[in-house]
UniProtKB/TrEMBL annotation:
Signal peptide: none annotated. GO terms for molecular function: DNA binding; sigma factor activity. InterPro entries: RNA_pol_sigma-70-like, RNA_pol_sigma70_r2, RNA_pol_sigma_r2. Residues 20-84 form the RNA polymerase sigma-70 region domain. Keywords: DNA-binding, Sigma factor, Transcription, Transcription regulation. The keyword Nucleus does not apply. Residues 270-307 are annotated as: Disordered. It comes from the Bacteria. PANTHER family: RNA POLYMERASE ECF-TYPE SIGMA FACTO (PTHR43133), RNA POLYMERASE SIGMA FACTOR HI_1459-RELATED (PTHR43133:SF8). It holds the Pfam family Sigma70_r2. The lineage of its organism: Bacteria, Pseudomonadati, Acidobacteriota, Terriglobia, Terriglobales. This is RNA polymerase sigma factor. The keyword Transcription applies.
Length: 947
């Protein structure tokens, strides 16, 4: 049921009906909006804008009051549907025609988000207006609510100049919001002004606060009445930049100009108390019947009809003055089509669903302003099959809307004409456009009622629509969704098949190792023959490799050229076995040692798979790849990218498994017993062990030391190297089995190096053998231990004692590092005294190794010095030592032992009278200076000898 009773009478205008029943319309709007006064007034205002100028009520409308209520309800539902895509989400706050319209576009919660932006824009324009007329014009339009034609009168300029000034100032304000500080006015950055929490959070208060800020920024003297009258009467006079800046920021001068020009005063431009929509909260926290208003409605006086009529007329004028940037067609509140306005004539079409019966059609702008409103009437035989409406806007702009029912699907056509766009085109752009674009023709229903004439006239359009709308528009949405899903599935399947092999790195390596191990399952004793090519940027070599898959016989050591030896050393450092360079197991060992890595498997040919592993940790290898045959996963290529020397590529040229009878036995080391072969049995000859030369021992030990240094096993772990006639023996104990396997895997690939390393886990699992002997009595004495000098120092200086353990541990660890590095450095001096026989690369390795040990000593001394300095025991002054300089290895060893003993005295408790902490710290500085000078001389001698 409708709320208004039907009453007969003459046909009044919609405007008269609206003002007559505005109170009842407002009450119904309150019920529709859940008692939201702001939203209700906005809804009533939109209803007036749509029906203003509609003329008398049509004969087909029996009850205009009920008709207005129905339209009010439909407008409310349309706003709810469009609220999901609010314009404020797509537009900046400065993109609106005025700040008042921007505040109307958001609810109360949204005001909190745009409040800071509005204040920043206002601050920027208040400063910018002193040097730019565009800023003053934008203040009039945006903050003070002047229409463009009113700005033309106040600023004494042209409409084209006003449009350009508004566009330029809006771009500057938007840039200042997006990139604060880019625009610096008055040859310096603006002073940032912070807002306090007391700043108004409601729309009405925020709007008035912004106007107050503008009027407070006024500078200069006010205009006299005679001066203003002279400026506005004389067409030759205009305002300077400073005068215009004063005029827009002085309320008295601006109202004086308004009276002279017959324009509304500032108080009439002040928005009502309901700008900004509230979001009422109900019992469930989402919606309710008691809204929270922006300002108290109880304190607001009832608005007289004359003032209300004035306010509605000004809202209508605001719509007429609005210039859209985008056009949108909404049917019953749903957006059906949109288009950007880029030319003087803009044409927009929308085709509705077949047999659709729209109730009303709106043409909206990007700011939600309704520029045209059409109440769709059902087509009748005497009324034709088309309904048209023409809306005249300001500045000779027009908008024509036509709704056609000639086809099965109703069609909407909109043609918008804006003559102001043509003068805005730059001269350069006009010169590029040699062909003029004609205005689009506004189609109408044919005047003839001949059915066949209508059909043939619209036949091309119907065919075009039929071809462009396959499948048929009546297709079931579920069927359309199923077809779309099937199409996407096919596309995804094609992409999946083209994306690469479906195998993981772990599976590829596992199958490659199984391929290598397949030879071991043979019942016959066989030997593997493999020919490879190794290529680097500086050297290429080809090798024929013979190896026993049972690991019973080892190939004899072959003499290598200097380039091949250099290449072998590089591969050994990278963990590549020289005798099995394409081994999948060898690649897996390196792969598993990388704690952080990235694997990529690609198809590198019709029958090849390549695994590329990128190492993200520090180490000699940056990236490594292995290529296998997809048919049997046999490795055929391996590429190693080293950090210092570039890329090494190993490619297989030939591979075969042969019986032992086809192989020269002299290529392998003889067995101590009888070998199991398929050749006639021979008596084993006595094998005399090969005695290594000093040069071979030097090369083996240097290679082992370099590997241990790269693995950080020479400092912090108990690893010892000893020489024997058969090679270098490496013994030691490490913490875990993983660490043991890591060291052994690197050291085992080195020639003449024999690692024998145990882990703490292995030692702990072995049974303990009891020792037999006479039990010796143990005498226990109790003495009172004195605090260490370091602890005594901390107590005396009232420093926190919780640092004692950390400082003591750091001093002890660094002194141990220094001692271990010195031991290795001394061994280098002793073992490689005749190092001139080494190759150039090996001499360079020896020099780098000595430098590393010396740097370790120096860094340990520096770390201890920083630790002592942190508690005030080392003031950083250089202390001259009366002791002579250290030059020999024995002197350095003695000084390092003394340095270690001083560290022990500083952190250990005793029973006697120990030295004070400052005294020990001074002796540590002196000892450290002697160690530095001695190691520097050693490094100089090593560099001179090997360079």
């Amino acid at each position: 049921m409708f709320p208004f009773p039907s009453k007969p009478g003459s046909r009044p205008t919609f405007e008269d009906v609206f003002f007559e029943h505005r109170t009842r319309l407002y009450e119904w709007a309150l019920q529709l909006t859940g008692r939201d006064h702001s939203d209700a007034e906005d809804l009533v205002q939109e209803l007036f804008v749509r029906f203003a100028g509609a003329g008398p009520v049509g004969e087909h409308i029996e009850n205009p009051e009920d008709y207005l209520f129905s339209t009010l309800r439909n407008l409310h539902y349309a706003r709810l549907r469009r609220a999901r895509t609010s314009a404020i989400d797509d537009l900046s706050v400065v993109d609106y025609d005025s700040a008042e319209r921007g505040l109307r576009a958001v609810d109360r919660n949204g005001v909190l988000f745009i409040r800071e932006d509005l204040h920043r824009v206002c601050d920027y324009l208040c400063e910018r207006k002193e040097s730019s007329r565009a800023a003053s014009i934008f203040i009039l339009r945006y903050f003070l609510g002047y229409f463009p034609n009113e700005v033309v009168q106040v600023a004494r300029t042209t409409r084209s100049a006003v449009d350009k000034a508004i566009r330029a100032a809006r771009n500057e304000a938007r840039l200042d919001l997006d990139r604060p500080g880019v625009l610096q006015q008055m040859a310096g950055a603006r002073e940032s002004k912070s807002r306090t929490s007391k700043a108004p959070t409601d729309s009405q208060g925020l709007f008035l606060a912004l106007r107050t800020k503008i009027f407070r920024s006024c500078t200069g003297e006010c205009f006299s009445r005679s001066l203003l009258e002279a400026k506005y009467k004389d067409n030759d006079q205009s305002f300077t930049t400073a005068e215009l800046a004063h005029l827009v920021s002085c309320a008295g001068c601006l109202d004086r100009a308004n009276r002279l020009l017959g324009l509304p005063l500032l108080e009439e431009r002040s928005p009502d108390e309901t700008i900004g929509r509230d979001t009422p909260q109900g019992p469930d926290g989402s919606a309710g019947a008691t809204p929270t208003l922006v300002s108290s409605r109880a304190k607001r006086k009832a608005e007289d009809p004359q003032r209300f009529r004035k306010r509605m007329q000004r809202c209508l004028e605001e719509v007429n003055q609005h210039r859209p940037q985008h056009l949108l067609i909404a049917v019953d509140g749903d957006i059906r089509a949109s288009q950007r306005v880029t030319a003087q004539f803009s044409e927009l079409r929308a085709e509705l669903r077949p047999m659709e019966k729209p109730t009303f059609i709106e043409v909206l702008s990007e700011q939600g302003v309704c520029l045209a409103f059409v109440l769709v009437q059902a087509p009748v035989p005497e009324g034709g099959l088309q309904q048209t409406k023409e809306v005249r806007l300001s500045d000779d702009r027009t908008m024509k809307v036509a709704v056609s029912f000639t086809a099965e699907s109703p069609t909407i056509q909109v043609v918008y004409n804006d003559p102001l766009i043509a003068p805005e085109v730059d001269v350069e752009e006009e010169s590029l456009k040699a062909v003029s674009v004609p205005a689009p023709k506004f189609e109408g229903i044919p005047a003839s009622d001949n059915r066949w004439e209508i059909i043939f006239r619209f036949l091309p359009a119907r065919l075009r629509r039929w071809l462009t709308h396959l499948p048929h528009p009546r297709m079931n949405p579920l069927l359309a969704g199923a077809m779309l899903f099937a199409l996407c599935s096919v596309v995804c399947f094609i992409l999946w098949t083209k994306s690469g092999p479906r195998i993981s790195a772990t599976t590829l390596l596992a199958r490659a190792e199984q391929s290598d191990a397949a030879v071991l399952q043979s019942a016959h004793s066989e030997v593997i023959y493999q020919k490879v090519r190794i290529t680097t940027s500086r050297h290429t070599t080809e090798r024929a490799i013979y190896r026993d898959p049972q690991k019973k016989r080892r190939p004899k050591q072959q003499h290598l050229s200097p380039d091949d030896q250099w290449l072998k050393d590089k591969l050994n450092l990278a963990g590549v076995n020289w005798d099995e360079p394409l081994s999948a197991a060898n690649y897996s060992e390196w792969h598993d040692r990388q704690r952080m890595k990235q694997d990529v498997v690609t198809q590198s040919g019709s029958n090849l798979l390549t695994l590329t592993t990128s190492a993200t940790e520090g180490g000699p290898v940056l990236k490594e790849s292995i290529t296998v045959r997809e048919s049997d996963f046999h490795p055929v290529d391996r590429t190693i990218e080293l950090r210092d020397t570039g890329t090494v590529e190993i490619a297989e040229l030939n591979y075969d498994v042969m019986p032992w009878g086809a192989v020269n036995q002299d290529w392998f080391e003889p067995l101590a017993g009888n070998a199991v072969t398929d050749v006639p049995a021979m008596h084993a000859a006595i094998h005399i062990p090969h005695v290594l030369s000093d040069l071979e021992l030097d090369e083996a030990e240097l290679s082992a030391r370099v590997v241990l240094n790269q693995l950080h096993a020479d400092t912090g772990e108990q690893i010892h190297l000893t020489r024997s006639s058969s090679g270098i023996d490496i013994k030691g104990v490490v913490d875990t089995d993983v660490r043991k396997r890591e060291l052994v895997s690197h050291l085992a690939s080195l020639p003449n190096v024999h690692p024998s390393i145990l882990s703490v886990e292995e030692i702990g699992s072995r049974p303990q053998h009891p020792t037999f002997g006479n039990d010796q009595p143990v005498q226990v004495q109790s003495v009172e231990a004195q605090p260490s000098p370091l602890e005594q120092y901390l107590r005396e200086n009232k420093l926190p004692l919780d640092q004692l353990g950390t400082i003591s541990q750091n001093l002890f660890d660094q002194s141990l590092r220094i001692q271990q590095a010195e031991v290795h450095l001394a061994e280098l001096q002793q073992r490689f005294a005749g190092g001139k026989q080494l190759s150039v690369d090996q001499q360079q390795q020896l020099t780098e190794l000595a430098r590393d040990y010396i740097n370790t000593i120096h860094s340990g001394l520096e770390e201890n010095q920083r630790t002592l300095r942190s508690i005030g025991l080392d003031n950083g002054e250089q202390v001259a030592s009366p002791a002579p300089s250290v030059s020999s290895g024995e002197d350095i060893d003695r000084q390092i032992h003394r340095y270690q003993e001083l560290c022990r005295q500083l952190i250990s408790s005793g029973t006697g009278e120990p030295q004070s902490a400052p005294t020990i710290a001074t002796q540590l500085r002196t000892s450290g200076s002697l160690i530095r000078s001695g190691t520097a001389q050693i490094y100089a001698s090593v560099s001179t000898a090997h360079n």
